[in-house]
Write a structure and sequence with these properties.
- The protein is of the alpha/beta class.
- It has 2 domains: 156 residues, Alpha-Beta Complex (Quinone Oxidoreductase, Chain A, domain 1); 139 residues, Rossmann fold.
- Helices cover 30% and strands 25% of the residues.
- It has 11 helices and 14 strands.
- α11 links the parallel β13 and β14.
- InterPro entries: ADH-like_C, ADH-like_N, ER, GroES-like_sf, NAD(P)-bd_dom_sf, Zinc-ADH_QOR/CCCR.
- This is NADPH:quinone reductase.
- It holds the Pfam family ADH_zinc_N.
- Keywords: NADP.
């Protein structure tokens, strides 16, 4: 099968190799998926760059956790009726070496749920990390109806879906955005208010917009950088669900202030979500996809031969939306 892989850590152009790899087989409890699209996420490029020093100890790695395609065959213990089913794949290259940057991937059947007919394969490649992370951040601590939810970076890959999921759950949503185009995007998908997180004092601006009611939960993209402003607008007993802290990698916490606010800090990563949380996220997301409720942003859909470019785009940033590669 055609695939991209890396045998050493480094930049995309220097480490990603294109060529033929053995076609996998569906073992017990697995399905073999003919991949149509593969999704590229920040965690994928960080692994390739060397974020986990032991990743290559057992050999080459075919990257990417997310993708979508059609089940070609099934292993023992999996119903034959699944053959021909349109599916999305998540968590493919977690705790193992072979992900979705290839024509085929064999994964546990549970990691290849049915993809609703209303969703394209491009959308399917955006479910695993962007949508499921958003769902966990919004709903990990219970229902949100009537609550004030703040989504930082609302036009980003995760924030874009978090706004929609929070509104679907009945929340009042404030988002942050850094420019007029992103502000318009947040409003379009349901945010009630938007503040500019590049302006000083934006935490106080949030309070003004919601008439000093304060924020009950935060879906946060830059924990260390955003924390000082968040503390200005959070209610006592609030929760910050954060999935990244790139600008400030080792945040310093004002412990006493946070303790007296009775705050909860929840770190979110799809791989570590409880299985019941993954199942609930998939049920809710598929329900919304079935009803064509969710809006999507695939910023770049590249051909297979431009896999290197897809990694470079993620690293360069400067755009909003997901990056997907078509697989022949």
């Amino acid at each position: 099968m055609n695939a991209f892989w890396f045998e050493a850590f480094g930049d995309a152009a220097g480490s990603l190799i294109s060529g033929a790899q053995p076609k996998p087989k569906a073992e017990q409890g697995q399905v073999l998926v003919k991949i149509s699209t593969t999704g590229i996420n920040p965690s994928d490029v960080k692994k390739r760059a060397g974020a986990f020093s032991n990743l290559l100890d057992a050999g080459l790695v075919i990257p990417h956790s997310d993708g979508a395609g059609v089940i070609e065959s099934v292993g023992e213990g999996v119903e034959e009726s699944r053959v021909g089913e349109r599916v999305f794949v998540y968590q493919a290259q977690y705790g193992r070496r072979f992900g979705t940057a290839a024509e085929y991937v064999a994964v546990d059947s549970i990691r290849a749920p049915r993809l609703p007919d209303t969703a394209s394969f491009e959308v399917g490649a955006c479910i695993g990390i962007p949508m499921m992370t958003a769902h966990r951040c919004v709903f990990a601590d219970g229902g949100v109806r009537g609550k004030n939810i703040l989504v930082t970076g609302g036009a980003g890959r995760v924030g874009y879906y978090a706004i929609q999921l929070a509104k679907w759950g009945g929340a009042n949503v404030v988002a942050t955005a850094s420019n007029p185009a992103d502000k318009a995007t947040c409003l379009k998908v349901g945010a009630d208010f938007v503040v500019n997180h590049r302006e000083s004092g934006w935490g106080d601006a949030v309070l003004t917009l919601i008439e000093d009611e304060k924020i009950n939960r935060v879906v946060d993209v830059e924990f260390g950088a955003n924390l000082p402003e968040l503390l200005n607008c959070l209610a006592t007993g609030a929760t910050i669900a954060t999935y990244s802290s790139t600008q400030v990698r080792e945040p310093k916490l004002p412990f006493l202030q946070m303790m007296f606010m009775d705050l909860t800090i929840r770190m979110v990563i799809v791989y570590a979500m409880p299985e019941e949380a993954k199942a609930q996220a998939i049920d809710d997301i598929c329900h919304l996809l079935d009803s064509s409720t969710l809006q999507h942003r695939v910023a770049h859909c590249l051909p297979f031969e431009e896999m290197v470019r897809s990694h470079e785009l993620i690293e360069q940033g400067g755009f909003s939306g997901c990056v997907v590669v078509s697989v022949p």
